[in-house]
């Protein structure tokens, strides 16, 4: 039993091996065919690329040659007209031909119109020459005709003057309109300027109020200083007067003392020389020193010398 199972398994393995070999052989053949097809396609593509490159190169050469031919024909057609040549130098021959044909047609039409105008003006000139010849052949005008001609000339002059006035009035009107527009533009900017000026006025008013307060304070200070100065001056004058009064009183006392001493000197009879008068004193009252009698109480013929002391005045 085991031998039969082994035989069957070996046979199955051999069959599977054969199948795998055939599959791998077929895959290798397919791969070889694919590689060969890719090589053939790449060779064909290379050939087509070379053909296309040669065609493109040939087409570029033909295009450059055609472009040169177009430029040559356009420059030959334009001649010495440089602006026209520059305008048509980059266009094809067909476009340049159409443009040049249109340009030629326009010039021909303009030429025809100018010829028509010249003919009309020639006819008018001939008619005017005929009228002039007829007028020259007529006899001299009468006084009435001369007057009418003068009136006509005056009217023509008036018409010319009115035309000049009309033109000047139109110019003045245009100038007025320009000025009006300018003034409107200027008027647009006035509100901002007015706001700025109003702000400046407000600032100036605040500064002015501050200055007024400062000036009032300064005036009050000056008034106070003047009042103090007047009070000081009055007190100084009073002190000066009091000082002068004291000096006058002292002078009077000194004069009295001197007069007394001189009178006593002449009254006394003494072998001694007269003593020198005491020095002048500024203030105080004179009292005799203690231990010496008054001049009235002295009974001796030789009177003693008196000494005086200065006591401060309280």
Task: Walk me through this protein's architecture.
The protein is mainly alpha-helical. It has five helices and two strands, in the order αααααββ. The chain has a two-stranded antiparallel sheet with strand order 1-2. Helix 1 runs antiparallel to helix 2 (82-88) and helix 1 runs parallel beside helix 3 (93-137). The model is unreliable at 280-314 (pLDDT under 50).
Question: Any chance you could write out the topology, listing elements then pairs?
Answer:
Elements: H1 2-78, H2 82-88, H3 93-137, H4 143-188, H5 190-267, E1 285-288, E2 308-311
Antiparallel strand pairs: 1-2
Helix pairs in contact: 1-2, 1-3
Region (Disordered): 261-314
Organism: Prolemur simus (Greater bamboo lemur)
Biased composition (Pro residues): 272-281
Task: Describe, in short, the structure shown.
This protein is an all-alpha fold. Helices cover 81% and strands 3% of the residues.
Question: How much strand?
Answer: under 5%
Kindly state the number of beta strands: 2
User: Gyration radius, to the nearest Å?
Assistant: 74 Å
Average pLDDT, rounded to a whole number, is 78
Number of helices: 5
Please give the alpha-carbon distance between the first and last residues. 175 Å
Stretches with pLDDT under 50, minimum 5 residues: 280-314
Largest sheet: 2 strands, antiparallel
Coarse morphology: flat
- What structural class do helix, strand and pairing data support? mainly alpha
* String of helices and strands: HHHHHEE
Strand order within the widest sheet? Answer: 1-2
Into which percent range does the helicity of residues fall? over 70%
Biased composition (Pro residues): 272-281
Region (Disordered): 261-314
Protein name: Coiled-coil domain-containing protein 183
InterPro entries: CCDC183 (IPR043247)
């Amino acid at each position: 039993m085991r031998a039969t199972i082994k035989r069957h398994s070996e046979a199955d393995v051999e069959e599977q091996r054969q199948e795998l070999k055939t599959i791998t052989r077929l895959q290798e053949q397919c791969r070889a065919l694919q590689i060969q097809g890719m090589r053939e396609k790449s060779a064909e593509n290379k050939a087509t690329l070379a053909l296309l490159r040669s065609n493109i190169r040939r087409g570029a050469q033909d295009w450059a040659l055609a472009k040169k031919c177009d430029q040559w024909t356009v420059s030959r057609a334009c001649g010495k007209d440089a602006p026209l040549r520059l305008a048509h130098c980059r266009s094809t021959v067909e476009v340049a031909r159409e443009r040049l044909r249109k340009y030629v047609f326009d010039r021909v039409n303009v030429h025809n119109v100018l010829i028509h105008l010249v003919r009309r003006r020639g006819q008018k000139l001939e008619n005017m020459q005929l009228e002039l010849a007829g007028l020259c052949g007529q006899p001299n005008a009468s006084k009435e005709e001369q007057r009418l001609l003068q009136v006509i000339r005056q009217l023509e002059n008036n018409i010319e003057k009115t035309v000049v006035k009309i033109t000047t009035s139109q110019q003045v009107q245009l100038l007025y309109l320009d000025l009006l527009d300018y003034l409107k533009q200027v008027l647009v900017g006035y509100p901002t300027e007015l706001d700025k000026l109003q702000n400046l006025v407000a600032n100036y008013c605040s500064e002015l109020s501050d200055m007024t307060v400062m000036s009032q304070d300064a005036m009050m200070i000056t008034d106070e200083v003047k009042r103090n100065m007047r009070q000081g001056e009055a007190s100084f004058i009073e002190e000066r007067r009091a000082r002068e009064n004291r000096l006058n009183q002292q002078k009077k006392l000194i004069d009295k003392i001197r007069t007394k001493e001189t009178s006593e000197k002449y009254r006394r009879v003494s072998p001694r020389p007269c003593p020198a008068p005491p020095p002048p004193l500024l203030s105080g009252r004179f009292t005799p020193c203690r231990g010496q009698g008054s001049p009235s109480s002295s009974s001796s013929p030789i009177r003693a010398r008196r000494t005086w002391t200065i006591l401060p005045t309280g």
